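Sequence only, no structure available. Ideas?
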Amino acid sequence: MKPNVADIARSLSFLNKFNERTLFLLKFSKKHMQSYEATLEFAQSMDNTDTLFPYRERFRFPQHDNKDVHYFCGNSLGLQPKSVSYLMQQELEDWARYGVEGHFQARNPWFSYHHIFSDRLAKIVGAKKDEVVASNTLTVNLHLLMISFYRPQGKRYKIIMEAGAFPSDQYAVETQVRMHGYEPDDAIIELSPKEGAHIIEEDDIIKAIEDAGDSLALVMMGGVNYYTGQLFDMKRITEAAHKVGAYAGYDLAHAVGNVPLHLHDWTVDFACWCSYKYLNSGPGGVGGIFVHEHHYSNPEIFRLGGWWGNDEKDRFKMKKGFIPQNNAGSWQMSNAPVFNMVAHNASLDIYEKAGMVALREKSLNMTGYLEWLLKQVTHLPFVIITPSHPTRRGCQLSLLFSDRGREVFDALTANGVVADWREPNVIRIAPVPLYNTYEDCYRFYEILMSIK
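Reply:
I predicted one. Tokens follow.
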């Protein structure tokens, strides 16, 4: 019997009640819901069927005892793509050949070099091409964006952020508040986990926004908390912020290239990120900016002016009067740092070919496998403080040690594992789907088991 229109409508209504995370899990293939095994044979069998496995060969690995290290530090600094050397040499040759004329005659003309990133970045962060630009660096961009979107007036002057955010975010918010004449202890509302917990419950975030009400000017949070690896529900947080008349902005340093993002559809007001973690674009690599189209086309949104943010068609007229571009590029300052951007170009080519959908699927399964392996390690005093629900995290797992943490970290390093130590007692590990393998995960577990 065919369903009638009313039945279909009821079914659609039911589906619409699911949030994005629930729908994602419904789509998650059953092949990822398998039973894991703590054996090398199992790990290698997973690698043998991994369609992303060949991408590992596109990266250079540090060496330990003449072998590739087990690199779990992509959440701090990603590996170097092998194509960087070739692309850098190309720019050096064009500089030698053309001198200043390379701005227009180089194979990738320097005048418009930043444009080559827009399409690829837009796909990674879920944006329109004109809403993103590769420019400046992370904290510089955060300050520039807060100058535009933190405009306190009257009783609307407070900012919500997570307690224990990355220090640079804390410093930026603190000094922005002081710049407007407020005291941080009064103007900044910090969200902490409940006593005895490690993550901030999303309902508590929403309640804090609702409680702040019309005193709230801005919600400024990390997309993924650097310490715990908790992925925040940016869609829900943004909706709550807008409901009380506040802006919502995010530092996506630990989210970009790691988790699915839909910044445009979530109506996020602004976001910024670095490119040297999951985007593998080298130490100090160029930052990125997202500004929703609702704002960049609004001349009432104040922004600091710079030569590269001015309307391109008038750039060389050298006239007074800043006329911002009608896109996110109006938050640029100076001309593109081409040599700094070469690694970004190389890495985004890899992302373009691999695709975020495939990367996220592997990330969910490989992180799940590593988590399962870690739970078999019962003789070392640690707990995993990263959320166990796969849609509430990326590929990072944070191990909180009650004792011997530094000793264990040093033993890992001595056995060819590159992980990340965070004071006072956390080891962060990130099985990055572009270049990590299931065998890496098993070897990590094997080394942990050997530590007595």
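The CA atoms of residues 26 and 70 lie 32 Å apart.
Hope that gets you unstuck.
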